[in-house]
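Below is a filled-in request sheet from our internal design queue. Each sheet records the structural input a requester submitted and the sequence that came back. We keep these sheets so that new team members can see what a complete request looks like end to end.

REQUESTER: design group, bay 2
PRIORITY: normal
MODE: inverse folding
CHAIN LENGTH: 216
BACKBONE (tokenized):
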């Protein structure tokens, strides 16, 4: 938006300079009165047209460029949001599915996965290699989600604005995901171990996880 205002401002300055230059030339030639001759006005129009037309063409081309850039940015935001929603839906399904594994006995066979996570993290049952292998892929999926969220936040900061006030969009986005997944993530990391979690994901995914889920 600021760039558009600057472009119109520059166009206005060019127009003002052109008119001022013409009036100065007329004043120097001693033509101080407004002419009623159509030819004089035609000459004035031709002079202004020669100066203004190229500037107007450049302004029009720039506005088309700004419009295309804005559309492209909006498309990136839409695609990023759609990817986040798909990942979020899949994670919800995985976290709410029954625990179909007998590694912790019949009591937990078919129990809600969240209940197993809470009981393991509260040391009501002892974690083993089987349960760790179940939760590591889930944490990996959440790390992938946080990387997509981070990309979306970065895009939201580049939304055209007259003020640098877009940071609150990123903060709001992070608060939402922290509230939704931070607690369950902390519990699963406690189960599998911090080092095992870090070894499972890439450095960029870990960085995104730290930024989104831990606010660093």
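RETURNED SEQUENCE:
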């Amino acid at each position: 938006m600021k760039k558009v205002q600057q472009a119109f401002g520059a166009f206005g300055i060019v127009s003002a300079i052109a008119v001022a230059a013409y009036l100065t030339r007329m004043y120097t030639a001693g033509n101080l009165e407004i002419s009623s001759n159509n030819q004089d006005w035609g000459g004035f129009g031709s002079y202004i047209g020669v100066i203004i037309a190229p500037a107007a063409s450049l302004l029009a081309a720039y506005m088309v460029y700004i419009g295309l850039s804005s559309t492209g940015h909006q498309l990136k935001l839409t695609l990023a949001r759609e990817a986040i929603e798909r990942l979020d839906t899949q994670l919800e399904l995985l976290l709410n599915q029954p625990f179909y594994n007998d590694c912790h006995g019949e009591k937990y066979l078919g129990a809600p996965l969240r209940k197993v996570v809470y009981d393991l993290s509260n040391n009501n049952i002892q974690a083993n290699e089987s349960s760790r292998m179940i939760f590591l892929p889930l944490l990996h999926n959440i790390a992938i989600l946080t990387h997509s969220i981070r990309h979306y936040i970065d895009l939201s900061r580049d939304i055209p604005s007259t003020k640098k006030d877009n940071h609150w969009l990123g903060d709001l986005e992070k608060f939402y995901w922290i509230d939704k997944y931070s607690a369950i993530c902390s519990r699963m990391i406690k189960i599998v171990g911090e080092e095992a979690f870090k070894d499972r994901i890439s450095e960029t995914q870990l960085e995104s996880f730290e930024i989104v889920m831990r606010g660093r």
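SHEET NOTES:
- The longest helix spans residues 38-96.
- Residues 119 and 125 are 6 Å apart (CA to CA).
FILED BY: M.R.
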